[in-house]
Backbone:
């Protein structure tokens, strides 16, 4: 398989790249840290896959067009697109700045839109492809101090639901994986007051991605919602 992963330098994206590292797979990862991407690239290649990477902002049209063009040049086609890059700011609404708002919507929503716009036509042409967007349980219910982050994740659900209808009969599948808090550095920075037993292990989240990637030919999973046991 040929796989493109955004937000591939750490957390869920990095673990996905590692899990998908098997002989014959080609993996292209993107992120904002060249050093972290280089580290994951090395791990993936040692595990048996060919790996490429590029640094860029998912909300920047020029960066996205360059990354996608490079990915098609290096891999020719993409079987699986994983749109995992995201950011969040958790404050009371009156504490939110314009920059807090713009950064979250630019990364979490515009970033998804830009990659879908670039890659869906190629998948339509091949009549196949699996796209997975990393959403959140906060895309189904809000939480205090998470108003704007939650709004971006609700927006993703609406976008995906609409585009799934546009893709009917095309052979291209699109769904979301929606975890609660995950035991990664990103979630730890935002959920310092939540004890680790209330967080999902990153491997458990990757299991859900693998289920969607490996689903049957006639199956088209809409979304998977994951929460820690007893949460």
Residues:
């Amino acid at each position: 398989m040929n796989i493109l992963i955004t937000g591939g330098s750490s957390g869920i994206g990095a673990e996905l790249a590692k899990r998908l590292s098997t002989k014959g797979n080609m993996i292209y990862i993107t992120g904002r840290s060249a050093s972290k991407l280089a580290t994951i690239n090395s791990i993936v290649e040692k595990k048996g896959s060919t790996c490429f990477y590029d640094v860029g902002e998912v909300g920047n049209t020029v960066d996205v067009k360059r990354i996608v063009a490079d990915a098609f040049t290096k891999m020719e086609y993409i079987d699986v697109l994983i749109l995992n890059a995201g950011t969040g700011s958790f404050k009371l609404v009156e504490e939110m700045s314009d920059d807090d708002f713009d950064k979250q919507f630019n990364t979490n929503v515009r970033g998804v839109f830009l990659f879908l716009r670039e890659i869906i036509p190629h998948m339509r042409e091949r009549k196949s492809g699996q796209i997975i967007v990393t959403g959140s349980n906060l895309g189904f219910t809000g939480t205090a101090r998470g108003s704007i982050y939650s709004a971006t994740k609700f927006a993703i659900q609406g976008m995906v639901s609409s585009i799934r209808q546009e893709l009917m009969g095309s052979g291209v599948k699109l769904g979301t994986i929606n975890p609660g808090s995950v035991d990664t550095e990103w979630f730890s920075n935002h959920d310092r007051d939540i004890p680790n037993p209330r967080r999902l292990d990153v491997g458990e989240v990757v299991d859900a991605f693998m289920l969607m990637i490996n689903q049957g030919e006639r199956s088209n999973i809409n979304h998977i919602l994951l929460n820690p046991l007893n949460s």
Notes: The chain has one domain: 2-192+199-226. The chain has seven helices and seven strands. Residues 2-192+199-226 form a domain with the Rossmann fold fold (CATH 3.40.50.720). The first strand starts at residue 2 and ends at 6.
